[in-house]
Amino acid sequence: MSFATGNRLRRRAWTAVAMGATIAVLALVGAAQQAAADSPQTAVLDWNKHALDALANAPSAAVPGAGMAAPVQGVHLGMVQGAVYDAVNSIAGGYEPYLDVGPAPRGASQAAATATAAHDVLVAVLNQTPLTATFTQPIRDAIIARLNTLETAAIAAATAADGAADVADGIEAGEDAAAAMITARTGDGRWGPFRFTCSNEAGAWRPITDTSCTMPSGPSDPFAWVAKVDPFVVESNRQFESNGPPALNTGIYAKDYNEVKALGAPGSARTDEQNALVAFFQANPVEMYYRSFRTVALAHGLGIAEQARLFGTFGLASADTFITCWEDKAHWSNWRPITAIRLGNDDGNPLTAADTSWTSVVGTPPYPDVASGYNCATGTFMTVAELWFGQGRTTFTLAHPNGSTRVYEHYRDVVNDTIDARIVMGIHFRFADELGAKIGRDVTRYVEKHALGRAK
Length: 456
What we know:
Elements: H1 3-19, H2 21-31, H3 43-56, H4 70-92, H5 110-128, H6 137-162, H7 164-184, H8 251-263, H9 272-280, H10 285-299, H11 304-332, H12 337-342, H13 373-389, E1 396-399, E2 405-408, H14 412-424, H15 430-450
Antiparallel strand pairs: 1-2
Helix pairs in contact: 1-7, 2-6, 3-4, 3-5, 3-10, 3-11, 4-5, 4-7, 4-11, 5-6, 5-7, 6-7, 9-14, 11-13, 11-15, 13-14, 13-15, 14-15
């Protein structure tokens, strides 16, 4: 059966279900795991959470997910949020589509369009995701079954609010947007063979467990392929390439070297605030920032069309930022602090004394230093926030998954904290953090200017 034929059959089935959904809505919502709080007025926010549960949660979690790494989540959420935006915008109008999906009837249910678009893209992504020892076929089936149940509950709630005919039109809009996104991202480089290259030259990246680069096929970083994925909006993976690390024999390199050496090891003399940064900013930035901005969207009273455009911007900008950031890592391929400090006597700089037993507070990730992925993400999310809500004083609360919070008066202050955090963790030089934040800002400003703008 073709994708289009399957959609037509499903639309007819949904129409039949929708006719009786007003009576059944409470039972359906009660049956759907985590669906009780869903509302047609917050459909974009609810399905952002469902998407993160499906993509980011560990397979062993109480609500199992695919356990994707942050940059992989970022790329796939670009697909989800882009399709949701197109589905809602095809109904509400007023802004340029991301992909050309055509207009839908103005009365179509935006909530039904949201649930359908998000569901269909997520199912396609999960079916494309390679199975592993932990992400098994039964886990994949369980995640998809949960998404099916959540979609059923969302359609029932939308029918109670909007009526069966408008829901049928909304489902069609969602299916069309999802199909367009799935087609557009076919063969885009996701899950490709690219891996980072190990080198034993001074300044070059190598994994901690193989400092001599003897591995015949190079280190196996499982998501290095993000570097080679086709971008969503920017013109190329290297359009916003950073200036790279400073030369090893320079004063700025020595300054950043000695800063992380002094602050980033277990037992270093850190302040209470620096230790608080270490504890807080180990959280997955993609999940934490989306979680926090769902609350911001509610606080600002954004309607569903505004939710879709805000989260569409987050999705497309952060996807392109991760792609740019990982390409930057591949291009510069410079060593992490732990390698640099252990081999400090080999870098040609008299100001960088080696410590052959030095280690970082937090385990060093298995990929190059420049540019910092965490700060690429932070730069993107906080720049979107400034573009939407302004750069002035505000009250913004970051909500950690463990329930702890940090309150900020400016969005840019989060960037300052994540720059410092990765240094006191011992896993990045300051220059890598600052370059990452700049990539996030630059990519986001480009996306804001060239996508999802007002219709002409």
